[in-house]
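Let us practice reading a record.
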Amino acid sequence: MGRMKQINPEVFVAEDRIVKVDQAVLQEIKSQAARNPRRRARLCVHKDVQDRLQEMLIVMARDIYIRPHKHVGKTESFHVIDGSADVVFFDSEGGIEEVIRIGNAASGKLFYIRNDEARYHTQVITSEFLVVHEITNGPFHRAETVFAPWAPEETDVAAAAAYWEDLKRHVATR
């Protein structure tokens, strides 16, 4: 297992010259996600937020609220390593445009998607954990992530929970 530096409870950075990930590393990230209040954690395999290529292994637990957002000037792809989710794309008013059901390669579902448009999206996790290998272009600038104005902020717990339950009901019928 490789060396990792913990930046905060949700973010680790791989420190080895050649990054190697096995089940023990994934289990460590899953365990950390399970302990975190927001129930997610990531291992950045790029070394710095300024890197031109941003590559991460991201673990998200079932039923977390991922506020719909879009990435301006970014391409984003992810490959499912473990688990399943519904990736939801929205129009600018918050209407559901498309739902893509994803899972690992053995699931029979789509296991890789790439989006190079600034479209509002979120993931509804449908397994205990979803583990994805995500790649996007850098450098990372928080301002390039635009949150949907029609979706509640995570800090508005009651509104976010109500919105999320309603969204999951709509997604289930598609």
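A brief commentary: The chain has two helices and twelve strands.
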